[in-house]
TrEMBL record:
One GO molecular-function entry: asparagine synthase (glutamine-hydrolyzing) activity
Protein name: asparagine synthase (glutamine-hydrolyzing)
Gene3D superfamilies: Glutamine Phosphoribosylpyrophosphate, subunit 1, domain 1 (3.60.20.10), HUPs (3.40.50.620)
Pathway: Amino-acid biosynthesis; L-asparagine biosynthesis; L-asparagine from L-aspartate (L-Gln route): step 1/1
Entry's family note: Belongs to the asparagine synthetase family.
N-terminal signal peptide: none
SUPFAM superfamilies referenced in this protein's UniProt entry, alphabetically: Adenine nucleotide alpha hydrolases-like, N-terminal nucleophile aminohydrolases (Ntn hydrolases)
Source lineage: Bacteria, Bacillati, Bacillota, Bacilli, Bacillales
EC number: 6.3.5.4
Entries under InterPro entries matching the protein: Asn_synth_AEB (IPR006426), Asn_synthase (IPR001962), ASN_synthetase/amidase (IPR051786), AsnB_N (IPR033738), GATase_2_dom (IPR017932), Ntn_hydrolases_N (IPR029055), Rossmann-like_a/b/a_fold (IPR014729)
Catalytic activities: L-aspartate + L-glutamine + ATP + H2O = L-asparagine + L-glutamate + AMP + diphosphate + H(+)
Native source species: Planococcus wigleyi
Sequence ranges assigned to domain Glutamine amidotransferase type-2 in this UniProt record: 2-210
Amino acid sequence: MCGFTGFIGKTADMKTDLTNMMDRIIHRGPDSAGEFIEGDAALGFRRLSIIDLETGGQPFHNESNSLVAMVNGEIYNFLELRKELMDKGHVFETASDCEVILHGYEEYGEAILSKLRGMFAFVIWDRINKKLIAGRDMFGIKPLYYGKMKDTFFFGSEIKSFLPHPGFQKAFNQDALLPYLSFQYSVLDETFFKGIFKLPAAHYLVYEKGKVTLQKYWTPDFQSSDRKLEQLVDEIDETIQESILSHRVSEVKVGSFLSSGVDSSYVASVLKPDKTFTVGFSDQNFSEIDNAKLLSDELEIQNNHAVLDADACFGQLENIQYQMDEPHADPSIVPLYFLAELAKKDVTVILSGEGADELFGGYEAYDMTPLMKKYGKIPSIVRRPAGRVASKLPEMRGKQFLMHAGLPVEEWFIGQANIFSETDAKRIVKEPFQHGPSIKQIVTPYYDQVKDKDNLTKKQFLDMNLWLVGDILLKADKMSMAHSLEVRVPFLDKKVMAIAEQVPSKYRITKTETKHAMRLAARKALPEFSAARKKIGFPVPIRNWIREERFYRQIQEYFLSADAADFFNTDEIMLLLNDHYEGKSNNGRKVWTIFTFLIWYKRYFRLEEQVVAHREPMLVGAAN
């Protein structure tokens, strides 16, 4: 695990500029550094040693030194690929798993991406043809950003690494704010930094002669099998167990995160690490510690846990938003930051349960209530007009029911978070920020790819392309790497995906439970009390915090700031805050989404200017 950064384009002092960029991501790789500078090309690498501790440094070079590569990630089928490539005459410099990408590209070109099993982001510089190739894993587990500004092409694991470069032109992307207020994360390919883009999951890019081209190499393909449930369950269990064991390969200590849910419990029960790690809050119904400890005791594993303090959480909000690179309003990033800090005290690699819900149908939003199912029997000629009328109404009792039961899923489901309606979002922002892409423009390209699928599959497909990569995996990467901790996600594996695609909808969600087939598989490894437990979802008591005087005042200061007035209608956002504080309504998530954006903006567009002006080091994670 590591991070890389770099640029194509001449500067007056290539080495100093690259070093300054690498310093911004030292938290991703505190163990060592590597660089390659030649002509217009500068590639910098920071390493967190996991496999091949002695000789696995980067960059990698091929036999003729015509190619140079840097890789962030882990390749779990590297031994078979390495043998295959050695049989074809390739000579390896190291025992690193990631070196197979370089020789694989040399042998197969971009087709190597379809052969890889793992999580990765990489860049390869072709010294002869002056061409850069960059690729990202099929699920988007590891991040990769890029952008061209004038004659300089930037690429790297984190946006913050671009900031010290003399050619980087920092500008706010006005189109990003409006959709953020609905989705709670940066949902566009172009980031909040104008001109800087995220390479989408399952894509590679080529930069040659000043032009960027993107190509997709994989897409989920849900094709239900007609096999019996028992056969599918056996194969799910066998595949998941094999994936978990493959993901434990390491030369450093490995542990696992553990909540009260079946996903992390399944991982812990198969992995059986020396230690599991859990955090929670003292507020009632906002802690999973007791359930995690119960399972750990059952498995005879030590559970390290911590009760989080609200003051400590607020004290780290600025650093958390800095680490995320873009504003991110998922409240769970806060406990995840502290959970990673806790785990890093004992291990360097952590296995986690992300991805099972998207693959196997685990979210409650994927299901319909019994009342909605009954209502769904009413002819659509009645339900749809009622749903469309409801969609235009302000928030009120019954609105969501009429929309969800009356309208096609494409017209209302945007993922696991839907903070502000488009109408409400436009009402609270100033005019220049009202013209970003609409929700329909964002979701339609994905729904168009699954027109012939059932509603459950449509929801899962959308979540895999937006929510999973833009929220779940991004926060897992950024919060763990802030503490120089590697997180691995064994459910998001090529072989697991192959079996998940075959599970019919009727076995994903039943009348009694979500993720049915996977839960049956988990029961083979788990005690019943863990396999049947409902998902809680890393609860964070933000609605309680905002009603405490000291935190209300802190948020109020941001809402009344000059920055807030530049973006928002102050009266509107103060009404949201005051109504929540006084208990008139529950606006917690809406307030939090605005609040985290303002924290992020202050950090990157106010404090950052002071950092650059005084040549001070940036804030980094607690591990540094």
